[in-house]
Every structure is written in C-alpha cells, then in structure tokens.
Task: structure prediction
Amino acid sequence: MAGASPTDVEECTLETARRQLGSYAVPVDRTDRIPLSVAVGRVLATDATANDRISGADVGVDDTVFQRGHQLRPADLGLLKAAGVNEVLARQRPQVGIVPTGDGLVEYDAGPDERVETAGFTLAQYADRWGGKVTYRNAVADDAPALRMAVQRDLTRDVVVLTGTEPGDTVREVVRELGDIVADRVAIAPGRETGLAVVQDRPVLLLPESPVAARVGAVQLLRPLLKGFGDAPLSDHPTRQATLADSLETDPAVRSFVPVALEDSAATPLSGTDLATATRADGWVTVPADEPDPGAGDTATVEDWDYIP
Result:
C-alpha cells in the first residue's frame, strides 16, 4: 500500500510482542447458556455438576463433573449427558474484528487490476477455530477517512486485526492518530512488517498482505491472544520429526518460520509467500534467531499449524 516511508519505530522480539498483547487479554467475563450439542471447545464459566448419578463412574448427584475453566472436549459431552446435564454456562468467545485493507480487493470475480481478498478471509477461519467470534469485514481501500471509520467501528470487539499493512502506510498513520503504535515491526520472518497497536485499550494486530506472512503473524500472536481472552489453554501444536531434503536459509537476526511439504519422513522447504505456498505447507520449521540454519539431511521438528484443538 502507498504511504509515507517507514518510521523505524523500535522493532520488538516475538516474546515481547506476545507479552505486550497478552497484557490486554483479560478473560472475557460475559457468559452464554448453551446446549451440549454446540458446546465443544467452549470454556466453562462455572462448575458443571451432575443432576443424575452415573453408575460405574463414581459420580453422584451434585458432584462436580468438570470444574470452571475446563475446555470441553467431545467425550466430555457424553459424560455430562449421562449426568443429566443438558446445557452449560460457558464463557463467551472473544470477539475479533478482521478488516482487510488495500486497493483493488474484491470478495469475488476479480476484474482487471483487482484481486480476490484471501488473507483476511483465511484468518477468519483460523480465528473461529481458535475460539474467537469473528466479524469478517469487506475490504477497505487505502483511504484515510474510510480506514478511520473501519477501525473505530470494530473497537467494540476485544481485538481488531488489520491485514494488508506495512510500516509507513496509510493504515499505520490512521492507527497512530487514533491510538498508539507499540511496535512497527516484529522480529519474525516472514512477517517482519507485522505491527502492534493499542486504540482505546483495544489491542490492534497489524498484519502484512502476504498470505504466508499474515499466517505466521496470526499463529504466533493472534492465537495466544484469543486463548488468553477466552481463558482457554494454549496447547502446543503437534509435531513430527522429519529429515530436511534441502538446507534452510534464514535471516539470523530474526526468528524464522519455514513452510515445508512432507512426504514420508522427508521435509522439503517451500519458497515464496503467496497463497499457493501457504496452502501447500504441511508444516512449519522454526529457526530461532542467532542459531545456525539446519542443513540437508538434518533432522528437524515440524509443527502442524493446521491441527486446531
């Protein structure tokens, strides 16, 4: 997006970015009373107690089946049903507004000089699976008044995510006028253009246009933020060991995340930051800053980011 030159606001590490965002992730105190049929993944706002005795399970009437703060799994619902529980009081899902930005973005049927918006749409699917209640907006053009209205409209949400932005562009200028830019860059690759801001005590995540970079920023920053708001456990991604088919080449100044394609026990690094690369990735290899790049034949730990508990 066009705009002024980057401001070179201090770059922060991924750990610092997580702490900064996490300081705003006060667990949502709103609650929903919901039937068991739609309760998978929800976090209990109160203890779930038995209405009926469960023979053979050592559960009696009024016994606590699951404690407050427990995130319900499919098997848990069967136990609750056996205990005569038909609905639970769950913590409301944190609300997240996702606003794609940039000129020429359309939802469908791109014409000349247009392109279909995918980064924000894809992130909306992830955020929903991570426990967020998502409002996915139509793309907003590179126009300061329109961008200002878009940001202000979603300040009723717990967190706002803007895609298609980089340091020095119109989006950052508008956000800086409305609040504070905490960091214009985060030391990750891809996605070094990721920024953090706060507007009216709402965390605002500023993600690049690249689908791969936006996914890295969302997995590393939005996912833990939503788990914090939802008072839900942040579990590790499943991993597997694989042998690298080629050497990795990363920037030693930042923490790097390399998408790989898996075939049997071999992991082939993928180049590019486009939608095809993001889609073809079977997993991701992390290379911390200041550590040597793994070479061909080395064993690497591959994280499955598409497994979403």
User: Anything to note?
Assistant: The first helix runs from residue 14 to 22.
